[in-house]
Amino acid sequence: MNATDMIHMEAGCQLSGAEISIAMQLGAGNLLPSAPDRSTYLGGSDTAAILGVSPWLSPFMLYQKKIGTFVEEITPAKQKLFDRGHRWEPIVVEMLIDELRDRGHDVEIIARNRRYQDPEFPFLAAEIDLELLVDGEEVNGEAKTVSPFAAKLWGEEDTDDIPIYYAAQVMHGLMIRPRRRTVIAALTGFDDKPRVHWIDRDEETIAGIRAKEIEFWERVQSRNAPDPTDPADVKWLYQRDGGTVFEADDELAQAIQELRDMKAKAKNLEALIDLSATRVKARMGEAATLIYQGKPLATWKNNKDSSKTDWKAIAEELLATPAVISAHTKTTPGARPFVLK
Asked: Fewer CB within 10 Å: N-end or C-end of the chain?
């Protein structure tokens, strides 16, 4: 199943011919002069979350971001990742154009990083990384830098076999800036050329995505949150207990029993895994890498030594008073473990 088919399924495409015809007749999108507040619209990076196929964000948490109750923490590591992508984007674009020309295509850049707004629903918008004229045909373009660890998620070159969350973003872009297809350049590690993939416009899939996004935005406007669907949702929603007691019904009691059974099976499986690993490590001894017929099977290496500074002891040695130490001590919320009785 290709990326378009998977999005088609997630979007719940069951549309009539008239509905598809309406989707095909939508305008080409209005050009936005500047970057709007992301809480005021749905963009291409929101599409995967709305469809429930994002590995980073659920529909529930995207809703919380849009209404302002959840503000994602941008750690230095995450910011570094974003900055790397922005720095590399012009390079990936240049490499894509070189690659297409090397293949004999006539390529011209039409626009870069323009933002467009849907002419019918202003809350739908998209930023298109790149707009090209390839052999006389206008196409949308996306430039991606891919971690070597995620390279396996990308299929054979010149196909539409790309991660579904990127495919959803691409199809959203084709909805806002309608063209027949999009070319995606994915640079993995320090490759000398990007992988080139093509995704063709699919009207029924786009119409399904459009319907899902309109439905989601109506939830945002009416403050009707989607149901929490993953552990991060529940953890964020119920961070602190209220000290009360909740009486279970038969369905909830059955769920607890099923949890007990699954945990018992997992514990037995973990014991078998530990036993097998112990047998292998006993044979490896001091060896760092295990190979078979020249190919690595496993590694057993020491991590880099770590050190920890006892700042409280230093403060006391420097004669800091307990009041000074207390003033610079932060309290973090306690964890809320779920324990079966």
From this structure: C
